[in-house]
Amino acid sequence: MNSVKSRNPAAGLSVRPVGTFLGAEITGVDLTRPLDADTVAAIAAAHVEHGIVVFPDQNISSEDLMRFGRYFGELSVHPFSTSSDNAPELIVYDNKQGNPPVDTDIWHSDETFRECPAMGTILCSKIIPDRGGDTTFASMIAVYEGLSDRMQSFVSGLEAVHDFLPFKATFPDTKEGREKLHYFEEIYRPATHPVVRVHPVSGKKAIYVNPEFTTHIKGMDKDESRTTLDLLFRKTLRQEYHYRHKWSPNMVVFWDNRSTQHSAQHDYYPHRRLMERVTIRGDRPVGDGPPADPASLRRYLMPPITAFANTRLKRQND
Questions:
Q1: Mind telling me the catalytic residues?
Q2: Which pLDDT tens digit goes with each residue over 7-29?
Q3: Bridge partners, 255 (sequence order)
Q4: Is the Cβ–Cβ distance between 279 and 78 less than 8 Å?
Q5: Spatial distance between the Cα atoms of 165 and 162, rounded to a whole number of angstroms
Q6: Which residue in 61, 64, 66, 63 sits closest to 76, CA to CA?
Q7: Given pLDDT bands bounded at 50, 70 and 90, which one contains residue 31?
Q8: How would residue 214 be classed by pLDDT, with cut points 50, 70 and 90?
Q9: Under 8 Å CB-to-CB from 225, ≥6 apart: which residues?
Q10: No. of helices (H) and no. of strands (E), the chain
Q11: Domain architecture of the chain: domains with CATH
Q12: 34 — pLDDT class (breaks 50, 70, 90)
């Protein structure tokens, strides 16, 4: 592991890598105070280079956290999360007996169900359980670079569909619940993103599918789609691509959703874990080339009935 510190003289920051493929600790900055442009630029550069930056010993308020997030872009409001009553941009996770955590232990990049998913996420620890509750991160750049040349060529140009499936279970199976779910399904229609995403700053390529939100590869046969996605999901499990973060109170972690995925362990429940989070709006993901020709993704030995709208037998729904 590279543990050599680097220092930005203009910003007064020290950056110490904590993982081989991702992760760095930043010291020499006080997030309770406004930051100058040089400091913000240095943090932004470290964020892109390392994927995750960790700020220990930052006893910040909710207002400090939101101010810090706004240095890097507009804060988003998560439509399905537990937000603060006073600030909808501020997500509060207060998991304890009677309020278990949601499915954050499944590998994912935040909010890929949006047309423009989150650029970055900032999480601040308030109350940490005595044991458990780590968050593991994976470098999706390393996952891509670890693929063979033939596999990189195969996934190039593929597009995948993302949906807010895990949150649909939070809507009750009542008339009112089904109507509300339908309302949100119309707002957040399934989003299509490239399987290989090009980072808008570094230009590096990263795998951009995850088992939390990705449902299938657009235009591909169901079996081939499932096989391809399962292979890519398994690549995320390779531990050499990981950085496992152990939390302490008053710690701020800022990760890049464009190049990393994460999984938050639930092994602390029913003990209390209180965290605050803000999420920064991102842009539309760009792939590593033109989308694959639909004719190359599926072969029909018998054509689908949908290709014969004028000659097929009519159905009741017609």
A1: 108, 110, 262, 277
A2: 665 568 899 999 999 999 999 99
A3: 52, 121
A4: yes
A5: 9
A6: 66
A7: very high
A8: very high
A9: 216, 217
A10: 7, 16
A11: 6-297 (3.60.130.10)
A12: very high
